[in-house]
Amino acid sequence: MRLLKNKNKKNNNKIKTIKKGYGKHFLNYIYLTMAMVFILITGFFGYKAYNYFIYKKKIFILKKISIAGKGISYKEKINILRLAGLYEGENLFNIDLKRVSRLIASDRWINNVTVYKKYPDEVVIVLKKRHIFAMVNKKNLYYISKSGYIIGRANGATGYNYSVVTGLNNKDSMGNYFDKIKRAIYFLNISRFSVIANHISEIHIERDNGIVVYTNNAILIKFGIGRYKEKLKTLKRLLYEIDKVHLKYKRYINLEYKDEAVIAVNPGSRVLPAGYKKNVVPADIFK
Question: In this structure, are 182 and 160 located in the same domain?
């Protein structure tokens, strides 16, 4: 009899434990349900409030677009506004800055663009322009930047007062084409402080990649391949001596040969050694 009573007590205890467990789980379920309902209600009214204050009350509405950048003209600003695709009254939260940046960057004159929102009602566009370094002749004349990037077709409004790179062949491979452009830009860079600075009308890349320069005063100068800095120094000394002796020559100078300068005069070509400046050059040497 005692054994039966003990079993009954154990069974009763199990039943009570199970009931308590179910009760606890039920309460947790109620709490969870209430929390979810609270979150849903809060989210709903929060969304309503967001739409009311942002859209209906029109708090963050685009009223101003600022464009900053060195050398940006009024006409260029108008073009940037057209490209950006922004309009007055647009909600700032709806503006996709990456999309606006891509649209503005489609203008080949733009090198770098940064767009950001300035709350409550402004979008700021900061630009960096590409600058014309030279022109290339490839069926038509095109402006190129210092990196060789083709900016656009040359025109009378922007001007033609830039050195022209010629010798580019449509049959050239892409690698060979850019190699020629790179070579011409390098030469133009190192010649900026030389005796022919601002006097290069045309820089021609020959088939063997040698460089020929035509100056504004119609002098043809053959530089050949390599050692351009040394050759520019030789040219400076040569022009000094030509001016000193009042030489009349055929506007042709060849600096292809190592440490020598060849010029064409009426009786024929004359070659001056590299160290000719150290010696006294007779006035009748070219006669």
Answer: yes
Domain that holds residue 34: 12-57
Contact in structure between 86 and 65 (CB atoms under 8 Å)? yes
- Rounded distance between C-alpha atoms, residue 48 and residue 96, angstroms: 23
How far CA 102 is from CA of 97, 107, 111, 115, in Å, comes to 9, 9, 12, 10
CA distance 171 to 144: 20
Task: Place 279 in a pLDDT band, splitting at 50, 70 and 90.
Answer: very low
Per-residue model confidence as pLDDT tens digits over 19-37: 555 555 656 667 677 777 7
> Is the separation of the CB atoms in 261 and 273 below 8 Å?
no
Identify whether the C-beta of residue 104 lies closer than 8 Å to the C-beta of residue 84.
yes
Q: Residue type at 175?
A: G
Q: Report residue 96 as tokens.
A: 């996709």
The residues near 31 (Cβ < 8 Å, ≥ 6 apart) are none
Burial 15-44 (b: 16+ CB within 10 A, else e): eeeeeeeeeeeeeeeeeeeeeeeeeeeeee
The contacts of residue 251 (CB under 8 Å, 6+ apart) are 218, 219, 220
**What tokens does 72 get?**
């940006």
3-class state of residue 183 by DSSP:
helix
Pick the range with the lowest mean pLDDT from 80-89, 166-175, 180-189, 225-234.
Answer: 166-175
End residue of a domain, out of 109, 129, 149 = 129
> What pTM, to 2 d.p., does this model score?
0.67
